[in-house]
Amino acid sequence: MKRYLKIFWLLSSYSIKTSFQHRLGVVSFLLGKIIRFTVYFFFIYFLVSRTKLLAGYNLNQTIIFFLVYNIIDSLTQMFFREVYRFRPLVVSGELDHILLKPYHPFLRILVGGIDPLDIIMLVPYLIILVFFILQAGMAILPVNFFIFLILMSNALILATFFHILVLAIGIFTTEVDHTILIYRDFARMASLPTDIYSEPLRFFITFVIPVGLMMTIPAKALFGLLTINILIISAAITVFFGWFSLSLWNNALKKYQSWGG
Amino acid sequence: MKKYWEIARVNTLQYLVYRLNFILWRFRNIINLIFIFFLWTNIYSTSSKVFNYDKAQVISYVLVVTLASSIVLSSRTSDIATEILSGYFINYLLKPVSFFKYILTRELVDKLINIVFTVIEISLLVMIFKPLLFIQNNISVYPVFIFSLIIGCLIGFFISLSLSFIAFWSSEVWAPRFIFFMLVQMLAGSWFPLDVLPKTIYNFMLLTPFPYLIFFPTKIYIHGLSVDLIKPIIISIIWCLILFAVTRLVWLKGIKNYGAFGR
User: Fold this and answer.
1) Domain ranges in chain B?
2) Scanning every residue of chain A, which has its alpha carbon at the shortest distance from the alpha carbon of B38?
3) Residue B168 or residue B260, greater confidence
4) ipTM of this predicted complex?
């Protein structure tokens, strides 16, 4: 474990150094991310401040949903940026070199390219989240906050399995770019409470492609709106999703023929 | 002319080579459309009129914006940056085809494919969810709508092409394009009609080229013709001419700077 942490640390520091080699790129991408967040935030604020409610949630609650989504999304992108660079490894056969290394390939292809820009973006998200929680005058019970933290961790675990799934599909089909962006599009659907969707779509994005469990449910925990059933279902779905994505990954490795090399 | 037909045919076939890629790309469009469709539907669950738009108008706005985006924003010009950086670009200069006619053919194919599939996707959505739609009955609106779409296409084309030509000088080509897309999302009316914003902000936005990409054509479709349209139409034509001049200048300077490295 200590060796793995050391390799992770090394890969992360290399990744951060590489990112900051392109200073203009860092500034531009950061600016782009800030614009995207500001626009979306302003859009929601503008919209819900006029209508007062969105699917039964008031403005502050809707914004808290949105901020929780942003925090989970940023953490996910921060850790799993390397997945976006997986396709060239498969089509060039470079993946062989990674599979031969004496450590688990996920260390390199899943978490081997930490994105420092998302670390930077996390800071304002957290500050704005705290601001809106205070503004909403919400008295968050310790138990609700504890459940919130558990569900945030669960969201990150689910996101890990999603990315493993993308890697597996990448080996089967050499298609990564659209698959990862489809995941992100689905995740964006849960940037607002999934209650806005009608059935069976709501069921689909909550339990089948569980982005609703990842993004919406933690915020509901903060509001104290969850039942014990949802927690049990969340855990069960995460276990099932983990089993499914890891099985698919193992299967993909068996099919991998290093055709590009 | 025959060779450009052949270029169009080859480019169309290219889409079918990576079929899974193509299907996933279209699937993404459907997801995004569903998201924005449900968001607006929910907004109107409690009130019949928000921001001076009724539900049918806003849902129609979302659908027309989706169609307009597929026409105006679909572009293969971003590939040019990669081709310049890799050195592949030299092929265009050596082959007995006009570079600009080549990319225009490629653009037309791309837009045509986008239009066909977006119409299918929108039709599917309408058939499944059966939303109340606003249909523009005034026939004279349609030529103006199409004209503004063409202006939008030209503005988008020139901006995107200029962004790709940055590759003549720098390898940092994706970051400016990322900012461009963010600005389009903010200022082009992709998510909401810009005229719901406070008057001062809206008037300021009309001075930039972005609203003329997709918001303005869609507004013409929804609100019909009026004298208020004359000024924005003139501004959009001026932007089109300015951007043409800028793109031409960047091209002439860039091509002199081009060293075909990488080949």
Assistant:
1) 2-257
2) A197
3) B168
4) 0.78
